[in-house]
């Protein structure tokens, strides 16, 4: 489980392997602040550790004085401060592995380009595969050239799919409007 502590003393606890943070209500942690982007950053549990990834926020994300590169994963440790404009969030981790992810969460991450698709990740997905042997899987470093390329391709695919769905939605609305007017 992870615990996020805000400057005002309030805390939020999460037991998930992926936590989206931003101003949007669709984020798991929604922060109503003018300098927080709709999807500001995410925290992800990868290969036994937590990583923070800036989602392309306009104001940027700073971890212990180091500004994060856009879409670059940096390891985060318990007690480190995430600074967003004029406030900070302190990250705490109890050292335990988060509860297993649902396959839909993994599919969404794959579409968004944040899922690092390695043999280790696939073998660590017990909801997809039975009899997984995780001790024989070598640890993989995130952000290798291959993984960055995969991320770029996945992001492009997600943008194209979003466009296709938008066009289909607009065509459907247009057809329904035409039908309603002419019936």
Structure description:
- The chain has 183 residues and is of the alpha+beta class.
- The chain folds into two domains: 98 residues, Tumour Suppressor Smad4, CATH 2.60.200.20; 74 residues, no CATH class.
- Helix content is 28%, strand content 25%.
- It has three helices and eleven strands.
- The strands form two sheets. A six-stranded antiparallel β-sheet has the order 2-1-11-10-7-8, with no helix packed on it.
- Strand 5 and strand 6 form a beta hairpin.
- The termini are far apart.
- About 16% of the residues have low confidence.
Strand content: 25-35%
Percent of residues in helices comes to 25-40%
CATH fold call of the largest domain? Tumour Suppressor Smad4
Structural class by secondary-structure content: alpha+beta
Query: In which order are the strands of the major sheet placed?
Result: 2-1-11-10-7-8
Mean pLDDT: 77
Radius of gyration: 19 Å
CATH A-level architecture of the largest domain? Sandwich
Structure summary:
The protein is α+β, with helices and mostly antiparallel strands and 183 residues long.
